[in-house]
């Protein structure tokens, strides 16, 4: 058979746009860590959001607690959550809005 053509590298520039998965429009801080019978959340919103929900899961993914904060204007919000009825020591806190989701691991003292 006849020899094939040699491979020619493509010299065209590759243009890639960044893929934005989530808008970083809020920040969540949790106190105290490790937690005992409660946690206090500090949620800083840079924009208005809809459907702000706070959920706590165990490591198996079972929902243990859910609090709906509703639609919130931009600003700083503090929220107290009781944990005395939760007996797991490792928890996942998920704060979600219509724009973004934040998850934080929490260690709880028994």
Write the layout of secondary structure elements.
Blueprint (H helix, E strand, L loop, with lengths): L25 E6 L6 E8 L3 E10 L4 E10 L2 E8 L7 E7 L4 E7 L3
Antiparallel strand pairs: 1-2, 2-5, 3-4, 3-6, 6-7
Brief description of this entry?
With 110 residues, this protein is mainly beta. 0% of the residues lie in helices and 51% in strands.
Amino-to-carboxy terminus distance:
76 Å
Helix content: under 10%
- Please work out how many helical segments DSSP would assign: 0
Anisotropy-based shape: globular
Largest sheet: 4 strands, antiparallel
Average pLDDT reading: 85
What class do helices, strands and sheet pairing give? mainly beta
Amount of beta strand: over 45%
- Strand order across the biggest sheet? 4-3-6-7
Give helix and strand order, one letter per element, not per position.
EEEEEEE
Q: Would you report the number of β strands?
A: 7
Radius of gyration of CA atoms, rounded to a whole number: 22 Å
Low-confidence stretches: none
Structure characterization notes:
- With about 110 residues, the chain is mainly beta.
- The protein is about 0% helix and about 50% strand.
- Strand 3 and strand 4 form a beta hairpin.
- It is globular.
- The chain starts with about 25 loop residues before the first strand and ends with a strand.
